Amino acid sequence: MAEFNPETCFATRRAVLAGLTAAPALTQPAGAQSLRPLRIGYIVNGPERTIFEEKFELGMRESGYVLGRNLIIDYRHQLRPDHDLSTVMRDFVAARVDAIVASTRGGVLAARAATSSIPIIFGATRDAIQDGLVQSLARPEANVTGQSFHAGELSAKRVQLMREAFPDDRKFAAIFNVYYPSTIQIEEASRAQSALGIELVLRGIAVPEGLDEAFAALKRDGVAALFVVSDVSTITNRVRLGEVAVRHRMPMMMSNKRYLTGGGLMSYGPDISEGFRRAARQVVRAANGTPISYLPVENPTHFEFVIDLRAARALDVEIASSILDRADELIE
Amino acid sequence: MTRRGLSLGQRLTLAFLGLVAAVLLVNGSISIWFTYRDATEAAVRVEQEKADAAADRVAQFIAELEQQIGWTTRPDWARVPMQQRRYDFIRLLRQVPAITELRYVDGDGRERLRLSRLEPDAVDSGVDLSADPRFRGARESRVWYGPVTFRQGSEPYMTVAVAHVGRDPGATIADVNLKLIWEVITAIRVGGMGYAFVTDTSGRLIAHPDISLVLRETDLSRLPQVAGAIAGGDERVRSARGIDGRAVLSASAPIPRLGWIVFVEQPTAEALAPVYAAAYQTLALLGLGVVLALLVGVVLARRLTDPIRALQAGAERLGRGDLAQRIAVASADEIGTLALRFNEMASRIQEAQETLEAKVADRTRELAQSLEELSAAQDRLVQTEKLASLGQLTAGIAHEIKNPLNFVNNFAELSIELLAELREAMERAGAALDPALRAEVEELCGMLRDNLAKVTAHGRRADSIVRNMLAHSREGKGERRRVELNDLLEETLNLAWHGARAERPGFNVTIEKRLDPGVGQLDLFPQEFTRVLLNLFGNAFHAMQQKEASGFQPYLLVTTQATPGEVMVTVRDNGTGIPDAVRGHIFEPFFTTKPAGQGTGLGLSLSHDIVVQQHGGRIDVATEPGAWTEFTITLPRESLATERAA
Lengths: 332, 646
Fold this sequence. Notes:
Low-confidence stretches of chain B: 639-646
Number of strands of chain B: 18
Number of helices of chain B: 15
CATH superfamily of the largest domain in chain A: Response regulator
CATH class of the largest domain in chain A: Alpha Beta
Strand content of chain A: 15-25%
Distance between the termini of chain B: 86 Å
Mean pLDDT of chain B: 83
Structural class of chain A: alpha/beta
Strand content of chain B: 15-25%
Largest sheet of chain A: 7 strands, mixed
Oligomer: heterodimer
Shape of chain A: elongated
Radius of gyration of chain A: 21 Å
């Protein structure tokens, strides 16, 4: 129980001290860091830079590390979930980076295969334990820690919200990338259907090329709305997804606000980008010597239910007022 | 003389230094102690206030929570439609982000509604919670706070159950994510580095600015301040180690309703910064004081020890014998007086020393003179002794020579007579002899006669010398008798001449004798008088030998002259003469100008005694240094003899 013992280990004390110094509560401007810039190997989820990277850099800045001054981030892109990252990870290890940030399961596993000493931080993961990245949230045992966000549990919640938005309908769907199905989310979503008394069509789709055809087919089948299982392909193709949804007048329940580009109708979930900001602090502490076991996996506490009224108009759907009242944010 | 250890000046300086340092140190220590105590008390007081305030705010956080939940516990809530209840719950969830899950349990303990941020909502699930501690707790105490649990071993949660109002009430059960207290706790700041944290009564960390510590389910019950606060005694632990091992000042306040404890800690280093400042100030002051004390001490000690050192140096020089040394000490204090006395003493010693030295010099001079005189006398005595033994020797030799010489002389005379008899015998032979043979024999006889005459003459001369030697060396004064003075003179002169020749074979001198035949016989001690004459002749020869320069012809004139009552004998040489400085001393005993061993210094002295005392005569000297010297002896003709006879 009392595993934390300040009397036993100096390294521990120092580690915690380092942790305290970098803790957000004690915002010491850590500007006077060592002369050597901090090097971070970073796997971007998808082909483009996103708000996550901006939030990560913001978090680094808040800890006193500024790009170009005392911070070097080596951005590499993961284009597909099965993208082989072993070469990239070898590069990172050879370049002696201070930490690796990877926010997909594949990325984290590749990093873990490449090094057991360099800290590996995930900015977001669907569920750290279920994805097999850590055994314990409180005390990550290896060199991996980061931000988790209850993706599985939330899938059911999302299906419920979707269903309540369309109380008169009974047929709904959940779509996912047929090549890399996220089983946790699909299973959770599927679990919800009986309790809600609905039929949930599970449909794997080749994203993005099969979207049009699939949406047309679902519409023909009388699906009232669909839940989009989040993964790198859907987030990358979110605009296209929105366009297809509007074209087929298909309301969509998304995982987070970022999907709401005008086509997706609703989203429920944590603000994942805030997780990247918190992850930056974990990166700083780990790179400055705090053992990973002192950096528990963090979960979000804030979940947003957002409804995009633009999309509602574009889709020409009526949303029950009870649902509108529940929304934390309405996008006009 | 050097002594080991510290000098007086150093000791004085050290004493001064020690005194000042001690005063400063004591003063500084006391002031630091008070500052320390005040600062500690002030810091702890501030922390205590902060802790109380923090406890209030955490309690308020929970109270607000309770109040928000209370909105769903109004009496009519049991009658509102489920849709309305759900709406109320949704609103509650939106208003209170810390609540993760909400349940409504009816009076029978059945779950009627469940809303979660993560899970799908459940309506009328009918789960029986009548035996659940949450339900029972709410029923018993209206508001029930569950223990802190860590979901998945990480996130701290607490359940708040509030019983509804009315008969057979249901309850609203809320799962609260305590991570949200983080904002409350983080807002508490003490100084620059102070922080607050919350534990439950078992010491488990509920809230801390470093959320990682909370998520690790950290147990702090081993920290003394936490243990102390849990024990709840009056003795609160004020100074302790923080979670990171740093020394901290700690204060705590309990939240009795929740059984939580709020701690406020500030690193000791920060809290006591004024104490350290005071300590540094004191140290600086101490250092300054010590330096000043050192300077003043050195100056004072120097002012005190410099005269002493001057005194010491003076004493040292005096000790080494520098008596002229005086100590220049201007001060009018005891040391000045001491120096004055010292100087007086030195001058007295110097005076005494000088007198002593003069006396010693006198004595030494006298002693040296005595020593010199003594050694001269010793030399003369030795010489006299030598002469005496020489005289004896001479007498012996002369005596031994005299017998063979008598034979030589007698047989020479006899041979002359025999030659005369040979001539008579030849004449008696007459013509019996060949005239040629006769002529030859007569010629040979003549040559023999001549030879024998020479043997006789020289034999006599030798005899005369031996007799003189005997006469001279004979012991005692001898007897007084009448003596032919001129003969005595001639004999003595002869003897002296031979003596001189014996000494220096090459020595030649022209001797002129003007002897007055009228002198005749005189009543004398011939032996003594001979000594006088020998002495005068000897001196004359010596003076002429000394002079011998180129073209110098030694010349000695000896005259006798008879006057009616007196007889005068003069001996004049053309030698070196007598210097004026010497002239007055020549008749003093042991006075001599000859090198030691060559003259006894007694010659003229004895001569004077012999002439004046024995013979009642006079001896005078006339001289011209570098040219000539003339001694004149004047003897009475009769008076002395009669005196002596009488």
